[in-house]
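Margin note: ligand = iron/sulfur cluster.
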Amino acid sequence: MLNGLALLAHGRLCAEYGAPFPFFSDKDPLSELISALLSHRTKNADSHRAYQQLRATFPTWEAVRDAPTLDVQRALSACTWPEQKAPRIQAVLREISTRCGTDAPCALDFLAELPIPEARAWLESLPGVGPKTSAATLLFSCLRRPAMPVDSHHHRVAQRLGLIGPKVSENAAHKLLAALLPPDWDAQQVYDHHEAFMYHGQKCCYFHRPACERCVLLDVCPTGQAGLKT
Ligand code: SF4
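Resulting structure:
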């Protein structure tokens, strides 16, 4: 039953916001991972500027890994918490080098060959990498693997629709919401699902005062229906 609701919401939201949505990035997976780490609790424009500055300052990811942390921190000054993100990114790069061999280039292209659960587990065992970052690395990068990230907008809409319980965290929501989707969906379908839910959270199902009266999901949404009765 929840699968049916998820698919119905997918169809309506994709029509409302104009899917299929173009992918916004074709970075290699390591660059996408670093970009995702920079985006934590940071506005997109600021994390983008910090990423560009980092790439302009250091010619390679190995150079970022081996640089004095203060230099990396300075290059990240456009984003929030550079003093935490600089050592975190270097720790991630060092860990990747330890696992893949220090003579090998710092890269994650091999994740294309792993089954998605294994690729996600590999990424999520890196410091500071959770399910949203692992899914973003696999889906948004040029790998285009069908792994679904759940951001705060997506999470809120799913909760209000009753697709997940009110106490399910954003991290825990990843497995539950992915299980509601057809297992044979390709990357574009998974991406459209995530983007459509995210747009809905940004443009209608606001954190404060959701605009239920103009919502295309009002007739199937228990939160919206409850609001009509008050
Ligand atoms: S009806 Fe209201 S609470 Fe439900 S999804 Fe729409 S905007 Fe959100």
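The chain has two domains: 2-22+149-228, 29-140.
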